């Protein structure tokens, strides 16, 4: 097994930077490519943001010993939560329901609800969670999210159970 480095700050800060890049890419797709996020996408964004914040706090704190395990545990729980949402969305994309479960699209909300009711729904996201609007290398955004949450979970497990350099 690969040993954990003595100074874990760069590792935590790299996780933060990676999460920030993922969130920035999601915002790019939303604002410049016109891909509206569904509620599950928004939940995954929150999970990536939380993974990033935990990693940033850990990077600034520079924990040792049990502190590394605490941050690793928090990262693991957050990655598993986000990964479960991404896995559910991946399942929905593979086996789409006959009636979309994620709620109405943006146009329908703006036409059917007063603005005061539509704004909170818009913030939560719009669109059908089973729709595949973007792919890269044959994988949808939900698939890529699942892979990234899986990588974060593996890193967290390494932090929890990896051999320490003395």
Describe the structure.
It is a single chain. The chain has about 170 residues and is an all-alpha fold. It has a single domain (about 10-160), classed as DsbB-like (Bromodomain-like, Up-down Bundle). The protein is about 70% helix and about 0% strand. The protein has six helices and two strands. Strands 1-2 form a two-stranded antiparallel ribbon. Helix 1 (about 10-30) runs antiparallel to helix 2 (about 40-60), helix 2 runs parallel beside helix 6 and helix 3 (about 65-95) runs antiparallel to helix 6 (about 140-160). The longest helix is centred in the middle third of the chain and has 29 residues, at about 65-95. It is elongated, with a radius of gyration of 18 Å. The two termini are about 15 Å apart. The model is unreliable at about 120-125 (pLDDT under 50).
Task: Give the helix tally.
Answer: 6
Please indicate the percent range of residues in DSSP E strands (runs of 2 or more).
Answer: under 5%
CATH architecture: Up-down Bundle
Secondary structure: helix percent:
55-70%
Shape designation: elongated
Quote the distance from N terminus to C terminus.
15 Å
Strand order of the largest sheet: 1-2
Summarize the biggest pleated sheet: 2 strands, antiparallel
- The radius of gyration computed from the alpha-carbon positions, rounded to a whole number of angstroms, is 18 Å
């Amino acid at each position: 097994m690969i040993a954990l480095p003595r100074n874990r700050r760069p590792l935590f800060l790299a996780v933060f930077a990676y999460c920030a890049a993922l969130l920035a890419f999601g915002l790019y797709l939303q604002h410049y490519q016109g891909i509206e996020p569904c509620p599950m996408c928004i939940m995954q964004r929150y999970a990536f943001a939380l993974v990033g914040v935990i990693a940033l706090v850990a990077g600034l704190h520079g924990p040792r010993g049990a502190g590394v395990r605490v941050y690793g545990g928090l990262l693991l729980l957050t990655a598993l939560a986000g990964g479960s949402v991404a896995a559910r969305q991946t399942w929905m994309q593979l086996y789409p329901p006959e009636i979309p479960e994620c709620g109405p699209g943006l146009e329908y909300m703006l036409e059917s609800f007063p603005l005061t009711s539509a704004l909170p729904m818009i913030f939560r996201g719009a669109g059908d969670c089973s729709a595949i609007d973007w792919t890269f290398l044959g994988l949808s955004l939900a698939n890529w999210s699942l892979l990234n949450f899986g990588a974060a979970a593996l890193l967290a497990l390494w932090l929890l159970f990896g051999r320490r350099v003395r």
